[in-house]
Input
Amino acid sequence: MIHLLIRLRFVILGLILAGIGLLITSRISFISLELPSPQEIETTVSLTDKGSLKNSQITIPSGSTTARRLVFGNNYQLRLRSGDRASIEAVDTRGFFRTSSVTADLRQKPSVEFIANNPGPCSFTESGVVYSYTCGGSLDTMSVHIPPDGQQPGYVSGYTGSNPSLAIIDTATLNGKTILHLESTDGAKYLAEFDSGNVAEIAVINNLSQPEYRLLERSNDIVLYSSNLRQVLVFNDIGSTPNLLAIPEPSNKTLVGHELRHLNDRLLAVYSDAFKDQAIGDSDVNSGELGDNRGESELIVFGGGEEIRLPLDQTRVDVGFCSGSLICVHTGGQLDVYRLSNNSIQKATDYTGVEDMAYTASGGYILFAQQIALLDEDSASVHEVISNSAGFCGIHQNDSVLSVCTTVRGRKHLVRLVESSSYDRIIEAYQTLSISPDIDSLSIHKNTIHISPIRAKTVQDPGSRFSGQDPVERAEIRSRVEAAIQNAGIPSDYEVYIL
Output
């Protein structure tokens, strides 16, 4: 009997050890990484376990195209960088020492241009001039960012046009015109054309049945919709009589409308149970501090004769079209990407560490801590378009243009993407130049940089009655500033003025 008990204990112990071994091996995998072609410099790969958020790094030497890594975990996010080429990939591993393969498409980052210094948190551009303001603030608090003129640096002035007390709710572009959605202190709402720094034409919006409205820009019209989606109006011009747009109701009639997005001929309505008692903004969705986010939401894609529904078990979501066939669902740092295909929606992939999203006619832009990336429609992989080790201070967007607030030397700048055949590294060069101890201040606008060197010591010559900066020291400072410009790698097509 004792021998049977001992043997039984060994059998149970063996089963436990086998179970532990099976559990361990179920989480051990290989990731095989391949580059389409050899890179001139080495490629660094940062691997992030999506579950534990632990990071590790591997290096693919220059001239090589493959790497292989043993990993312990389920799903990983890979960030690849080789010089000015970058990519972000999502990999689902399968355990039991099986291999998950991924081919990374490293793409050249586009160039950017600086368009405003010290912008407010919201902005729009009209006739090449940036207007920034506190989101929801009145016209008379708006900053006008005047571009530089040769050696004359740019500067900021105030709004001096009409209707200064009206608050700016949204902006859009219609037939090449800048359109503002404005609201008065008594709740009246207006559409206005903004031209040459002034409200050129304004029309009150009548017969509104809901308290809050937002503006949606499309190719040939603009859509004004209530925040709960109970009233949707389509305008062909600011003074035209609007048409009512019917949108599908949620399957669960207790859900409340939250957002309306569009891309091409499709519209996306978002309903959720998070808004039965109180509304939340995108900042709540993006904060990553949602607590228990379980609940019910429904996404409805419609237009062009189709209607596709996707139920979700999350209640606070930020949703939009990331391309013609991809829908992004962002909540609490997690981004789930769904693909529209054959009148259905299927999950394609997911990403972690996402701080914010922006949706434009170009697609969905993803804001990470130090990178902004664009989602590729075919592969659902992510390609970096802007990076900054100092991070970002927000995304400025309307439906047609993406602008990004980035920080250099503690100062905010507004930048936007520009079409270019190569990456000019202006952000990196400007960061390098900004830390020079011989520079007191500097500003940048498109391809023009103005630099104010530090002052030389003051000297006085009683004989000539001269009083001012020491000319010898001043010349030495200027010489060091010129060397700093050269060492920073400012692109050759930039005009640099030392004031």
In short: DSSP finds four helices and 41 strands in the chain. Residues 278-291 have pLDDT under 50 and may be disordered.
